[in-house]
Structure formats: structure tokens, C-alpha cells
Amino acid sequence: MPADPRPEVTLAPAARTLRDLTGIPVTRLHGLGEKKAAALAKWGVTSVFDLLTTYPHRYIDRSRQADVADLALGDEAVVLATVRRSGARRTRQGRSLVELAVHDGTGGMKVVFFNQPWRARQLEPGTEALFFGKLDVYQGGRQMTNPVVDVVGAGAQQHTLRVIPVYPASAKAGLSSWEVGRWAEEAMRRSGTLADPLPEEWRHHFDLLDRTEAFRRVHLPEAMGDQAPGRRRLAFDELFRLQLALMLRRRALEEGARAVRHVVSALDVVEPDDGRLVRRFLGGLPFALTTAQRRALAAIFAELSGPVPMHRLLQGDVGSGKTVVAVAALLAAVQGGHQGALMAPTEVLAEQHHMAVRALLDGLAVADPRRLEGERPVTVALLTNRTGAAERARVRQGLLDGSVDLVVGTHALLTDDVAFHSLGLVVIDEQHRFGVEQRAALRDKGRAAVVPGDPDLLVMTATPIPRTAAMVLFGDLDMVVLDELPPGRTPVTTAWARAPEEEAAAWRRVAEEVAAGNRAYVVCPLVEESERVQARSATEERDRLARDVLPGLRLGLLHGQLRPAEKDEVMAAFRAGEVQVLVATTVVEVGVDVPEATVMVVEDADRFGIAQLHQLRGRVGRSHRPSWCFLLSAGGSTDAESRLEALVRTADGFALAEVDLALRGEGTILGARQKGRSDLQLARLRDDGELLDAARQVATAVTEDDPHLEGHPDLADEVRLFLDPEEEAYLFKS
Ligand code: ADP
Ligand code: MG
After folding, report:
1. Is 181 close to ligand 1, i.e. is its CB under 6 Å away?
2. What 3-state DSSP class applies to 162?
3. What residue owns the CA closest to ligand 1's atom 10?
């Protein structure tokens, strides 16, 4: 460090907590004036906490430093060299290209950067920098392409460091990685010892460094590899805070809960139909439950009859039969005189569920002592924003007086002024956004009922999600998995139709299957704009197919802009075979069940996500008939092509979920859950499963004895620091 005449004061008195560090502006650091502070602020860094939680994304190993003259072709090395000339231009393909001539006194080479136009500003002639990369030869000249760069400041300490941390994006913000490293070093030194809220025995048990050492290793590793255990500890902290928050949420929900005691038992799954609702429903199904379905239902029923409200996640692959499980659970509530609600994220999905549930309950009666016959049909109502005023009033009245047993709707059900007679169970379909407010609203709905009680909750995912993602997104729920498909399904042959002749073969297959009495879906390209635009393009596609591609076949059209009656009509026609090919937008994604459908054609398949394509494919192969899924796509980004390849390779939704995580990373998967500080910066759900298990174990143990963290004020404070305000208010309301 350059000598500084000012006396150095420590930044805060005792062992500092992370919260303390959030209160120290970066401008307290040496050489950090307003201009640099503004650049840091643009990068989201205003406090010492922000600085220390901005982590290097890679490290340069100075032990591999070499002279340019000594480098052989293919060597990977670090050189310290000065820029002599620099120029920027565009390649013929329009990519930006920055070219440098650099020299280190022993020899020279060319350095080129593609798509990093800001390098021209960063590396002006005269700049001294470390270049880390592989030496190759291009057009007879020696060159490094897209090396890692660290600009060396005047009198740089880097000359003495053996490992140099490289901070991401700093150059774009007008900061050199070296400067950031220097401030991090100073912040570490002046912060002294950081408080460690993780009890010593747990650190020991899981072989985790203490926090001060962990930060030091990440920002100032002494040897290559030192940083890994530091990263491990800090990644643990990220996961631990999340798990603690989830556990606190869970315990808060259980606290003072007034569970609805359902009249049902695990035995209802196996005992014969004795006329009671659940057994009658199960006994009347046209198929036997799978072992997985029986196991799931037994667990659900046992919990429903218990003293604590259920909070459960039901995961299963496409076609594993989640709907039947959900409906049986809803009927368990009805059997005891309570009501059930099934909520979907969109109106279209709610309408489809309504149809499916109605079909399953057709002819089923529930005991009603008020009736002369002693029973009445189970009533299922639909309530969405599209429900007309008169119908709406009728449904609301029925929910209030208890004559409506089950209601299917969107999440608006929770916020609406709908009141229940006795809300016993809520099933939420494919919901990644069922946050703490909705949880509270749900409980309030139950408590505001004529017969108050805390309703039980069952959350379903449309397709499986990876175990680690489930632990983060749904860590406050118990899990139950349907890991088995009903018998008699034939695997779907999946093909990626790339070339025109492959596409032609797909359409030929459609025609052949229709000729054999089967049916086909064609899913139209995803149109970003509005549902209206989507509907129009689906209509055009139907016309094109009818005219040019599938002449003579009977084509139907299904999209989100149709009125419910029109949708019912077109689906009925498809079921009956009057419509042979259903051209649809992604509204067919979930829930549509037509066993005669044997071909699924997805246009522009590269524009869909893995889970969506897997869902779509799940619409066929629902009987003993052989089925096909054609993914039409001339190609796309590397990721898109990896998605299509994965779909062709495997039909296992759990395996596809892992591929999806690998391709997309946690950011997008956790999407809605991720907010500001609670981002996972270091932890990787793909690789850190073991760390996540450890974090969960500690969080469970700590909250078991201390559900409000009253005995762990330091942990409580830290969790609060990372929670968003509404969650904090909910979990820590006094
Ligand atoms: P998903 O889990 O994808 O929601 P569904 O609940 O839509 O699956 O069920 C898919 C199909 O399998 C439906 O036609 C349903 O009636 C049928 N099904 C469900 N359980 C069984 C079973 N045990 N045996 C045979 N068919 C079943
Ligand atoms: Mg389903």
C-alpha cells in the first residue's frame, strides 16, 4: 500500500456484523473519491458491505507468469505487458473487435477481444496490464484471444501478490479490477474481525471456515486454491440465511394454528368403497391408483386428519396423475363438511381445471342431511375475472352458505371479497410465486369463514423441479413425489425436425395418424406480444395448414381469446374426433387430456423452455397407442439447441429439470424469489447440494429449540438484513 499520511482509524468498534458494514460508506476508504464512488454506485456498491459481497469471478495465478519470448504455442500463462498500439473495428460479421499490440521487454504479441468494445478505453497505449490466456497463432502472428485482463495501477501491489482476484464488470464501470481489489483489501484490514453468527460447533461439524477468514480467502488468497474454502463458507451463509428464513416462516405458520381436522384417514386409500365420499370417488375411478399415488394420498390424508395444518408440495412428472391426487384430497375436505379451493395462475388454466375436475366428479354425490334423499351432487364452481356478475353472485352465495363444495379459480380468490362457509383445503397449481403474503391471505380467508380454521395447503408443480431448487423455493413445505407413471403408457418418440424434409415427414405422420383414427396437436409459435396477437397468428397458421400442408383434414383452433363456451365446443369436437388436428397456442400446455391424440407438433420449438416442451409432449402418449412429438426448429442459440437435444434424449422430467437448471442457472429458476441481497451470488444449486443439505440441517436444528431466534439475536439480525421488508414484517412481527 502506498503510504498515507492520515492516521488510520478502525471502521467500527467491536467485532463487526454485516449490518455494521452496510452502514459504512465506501467513501471512508482511501483514494475513493466522489468520482470512483459514483462509478461504484452505478455498479450497486455504496457500502463496505456491498464491496465485500462483490466477489471476484476469477483469479490469476501469478506463479504461471512468463516472459512473452518464452511462450510456446498452446501455453496458458500470465504475462505482464505494456500496450503499444490499440485499434478497434468491426468484423465482417459485424462483431466488435479490439486489437492490441503488447510488449513486455522480451517480446511482443497481439491481443484481440471480440464483443468487448470497452477494452479500447480500458487498454489505451501505455497501459500496463496482466494478460492471462492461451497463446495461439493467427495469420502467422502470435496472439491471445479474449484473455482475462487485470490492469496494473501505478506502484501496484499486484507485483507482490501471488494470486490476483479479478472482479467482474469493473472495467465497464470505469474501475479497474485492481482498484476494487485494493479497496476490498483495505476494507478487510480495517474491518478487523467480523462477527460470526454461525455457532462454533456447526462450523466445526461441517468443516467451515470462520467468516473473517472466509472473506479474506476470497478477496486475498495467498495461493491458488486458497479461495475455495472461503467461497464454500460464504456460499453456505447464503443458503443458510435462506433456509433460516424458510424455517421461520414455517414455524410462524404453525404457531397458534387452528387446523381444520379433516374426517379422513390413510386407510381411505386402501379400503373398499363403503359409500363415503373419498372411498366412493377412488372406488369409482376407471383405473387403479399407482403405488406412488397411493403413497402420496396416504401421507396427505394422514396429515389432513392431524392437528397441524398441512403445507405440502406435490411433485410429479407430466402424466403421473397429480390431478386425481389433488381431487381426492379436496374431497377429503368435502367429506368432513368443509370446502376446497383449487387455484391456478391464469384464467385459462383455471377454466381447464374446472373442466377436468367436473369430469372426474361426474355423478358423485355427497351426504347432505338437509335433503330428503340424504345426499346431493358434489358442486364445483368456477370463479375468475371472466365470470359474469349474476353467476358470480350465485357462486359467492354458495361459498358462503356451504352449498358450493369446491371452487376453481385464479389467485384472485384470495384477494377477492369471497367468503367461505368453511375452507378446509387449498390446492395451488404450478405456482412459483406463492409468497408470504399469499400464505397469510390464505390463512386469513380460513379464519374469516363462517366456521373458522386454518386451511391445509397442497402446492403442485406442473413439471418436476430439481431437488435443490425445490429446497430453496419451497423449503417451507414438506414434499411428496409421484415417481411413477400409470401403466400402459407408451414412450413418445421425439424428433427434432430441422431440415425441410424432416418437417415434411412430421406432417406426413400427422396425416397418417389421422387416417388411422387418431388425432394431432399443432402448437403455434410463441408470440411475445399480447394474447390478441397470439390468437391472430394462430388463426393464420390454421388457415395456412388447412390450405397448403394438411388439405382435406378437419382442423380446429384453440386460443386464449375464445369465450369459454367456444373453447368447450372445440375441445369437445376434438375429443369426439370431429376435429382431427387441433391448432393451438400454448393453452394446451397443461391439463388437456385426449387419449386418442398421438402426435404433437411444436412449431419454432427453440423458443420454448424445457419444462414447457416437456409439458406439451405430455399431451400425447396418454394411452397404449404409439405417439410422436416433433419439435420443428431450424436451430437457435446454443442453449436452445441443448434444450431440444435434451428433449430428444430423455423423457424423464426429473432429469430434464436438472438439465434446465444447468442451462439456465439459478437466477432465472429462482426468478421471483430472488430479490436484492438475498440473491445467491456464490452458491450454485447445481453443485452445492451438499452445502444446501448442511444449511438446512443447521437451520432446522436452530429453529427447533428457538423458533423466533430469541436466543440467537445475531442470527436473527442477519436474517432480517437479508429479507425483503414485507417478509421481515411478517416473520418478526412482535
Ligand atoms: P399430471 O400429473 O400431468 O397432472 P394428470 O393428472 O393429468 O397428470 O393425469 C394424466 C392422465 O392419467 C389422466 O388421463 C388421468 O386420468 C390418468 N391417470 C391418472 N392416474 C392414473 C392411474 N393410476 N392409472 C391410469 N391412468 C391414470
Ligand atoms: Mg395436470
Report:
1. no
2. coil
3. 319
